Amino acid sequence: MITAPLRQKNTNKKGQMPMGNVSYSAHISNGKSAITSKKALAGVAKHNLRKYKSADYSSDNIRLIYGTTDLFQDVKRVYHREFDDVVKEYNSRQKREDRKIKDYFEHVAGLNQDMAVEIIFQCGDKKYWEEHWKNKDYMSEVFDYILDCLQKLLPEFKIANAVIHFDEASPHMHVVGVPVWEGAKRGLSKKVSKRNVFTPQTLSVILQDKLREEASYGFECYFKEQLAEKKKGRNHDLSVTEYKVAQESRKLTDIKQQNNEEQKKNTKLRSNINAAETEYAKYEEMITDKKNNLELLSSKESELIEKTKIAESVYDLFRQGGTDDVRDKLIDVMYENQKLREENTTLKELLEKAYEFMKQFVIDGVNLLERFLESVGKVVGNVYKKTK
C-alpha cells in the first residue's frame, strides 16, 4: 500500500499534477444498478466476490483488500457501528411504540432508497492492459492507495468492502460502502443519504479531480505513466450498469473477433479437407480399377484351371475309347482354350503345359497330341460340311 509519497509530487504553478494519456474512470451505482434492496445488495455481493460458478470468472482472480468474503454482513456491520447509538437516542424520544426503529438496516431496506453505494475505479483501458498485463499485480498497490485517499477525501462514505478484479479486460476495483449524512433536522440526526453525500460537487471535485490526481500519482509510481486529465462533458455520472454494459460489449466484441478467426480457420480447414477428399477419390478410383483388373485376371485364371481339369477328364475318357460326343466335347474345350489363350498370356502358358502333358503318351505308335489334333481336324471338316 502506498501510505506515503514514494517521491515528491510534481505540480504545476496552480498546484496541479501534470496528466498523461492513460484513462481513468469512477462509476457510481445509479438507476438499475442502484442498491435499493437487500436483494440488490446480495446480487452485488455475488458478483463482486464471485459467489457463483463460471467458465469466464473465478474467485482465484480477485483480490479482497477491505472487508470480508461476506459483503452483506460487512454492510450490516457498518450500519450497526454508525447508527445503533443514534437509533437508540431516537427511540428514547418516541412516545409511540410503532414509531420506534428496531433495526435501521431493515428499516432502510424497506424504504426503496439507496441503502448502500458502489463505486468502480479503473485505470487504463483494454488496449492499454493488452500491452501491460504482466504488470497487473502492481494495481493492488495503486488501488489500495486510491482506497486510502477515498476514505480521507470522502469520510462520509463509510467503506464496507473493496475487491479488485483481475479476470476481466482490465483490472478494476469495486468499492461498496454506506453514505452517512449528519445534520438532519427531522428524524434521526444521522442517516443514510446518497443524495446528500454524493452531491454534484462531490462527484466532480472529489471523484473526478482530486481522486484522479491521486490515482495518477499512485499509477505513475509503479508504471511511470500518468492518467489522462478530465475531459469536458460527461465524466462522473456513468452508472455501474453502464459500466458493466460497456464491459460486456467489449467482451462480446472480443468473442465476435474470436469467432471470425475460428470461422477463417474452419474455412481453410474445410478447403484442405475437400482437397484431400478429391485426391482420395482419385486414388480410390485407381484402386477400384486395379482391383477390378485383378478380379478379372483371377476369374480368367480360375476359368482356365477349370477348363484344364475338363480337358484332362475328357482325355481320360478318350483314351479309354471315347465316342464322337466325347471328341466334340474335347473340341469345344480346345476352342475355349484357344480363345482364352488369345485373351490372356497366362492361359496360353497353361495350354502349352496341357499340350506338353499330352505328348508324354503314345497310343498305337502315334503321339497322343498328334492323334488328338488329327481327330480335331476331321471333326472340324465334318462340321464345315454340315454347315454348307
Describe the structure.
The protein is an alpha+beta fold. The protein has two domains: 215 residues, BirA Bifunctional Protein, domain 2 (2-Layer Sandwich); 95 residues, no CATH class. The protein has eleven helices and eight strands. Strands 1, 2, 3, 4, 5 and 6 form a six-stranded antiparallel β-sheet that branches. A hairpin with a 2-residue loop joins β7 and β8. α9 runs antiparallel to α10. The chain is rod-shaped, with a radius of gyration of 50 Å. The protein starts with 23 loop residues before the first strand and ends with a helix.
Task: Write the SSE topology.
Layout: E1 24-28, H1 38-48, E2 62-66, H2 71-92, H3 104-109, E3 117-123, H4 126-132, H5 139-153, E4 157-165, E5 172-182, E6 190-192, H6 194-197, H7 200-223, H8 240-319, H9 324-343, H10 345-359, E7 362-363, E8 366-367, H11 368-387
Antiparallel strand pairs: 1-3, 2-4, 3-5, 4-5, 5-6, 7-8
Helix pairs in contact: 5-7, 8-9, 8-10, 9-10
Instruction: Work out the strand percent.
Output: 5-15%
* Mean pLDDT over the full residue set: 77
- Number of spatially distinct domains: 2
Structural class from helices and strands? alpha+beta
Q: Report how far the terminal alpha carbons are from each other.
A: 125 Å
- CATH-derived topology of the largest domain: BirA Bifunctional Protein, domain 2
Shape: rod-shaped
Q: How many beta-strand runs?
A: 8
Sheet with the most strands, sense and barrel status: 6 strands, antiparallel
Helix count from the secondary structure assignment: 11
Could you name the CATH class of the largest domain?
A: Alpha Beta
Q: How much helix, percentage-wise, in residues? A: 55-70%
Uncertain spans: 1-7, 234-248
Secondary-structure element pattern, one letter each: EHEHHEHHEEEHHHHHEEH
In CATH, the architecture of the largest domain is 2-Layer Sandwich
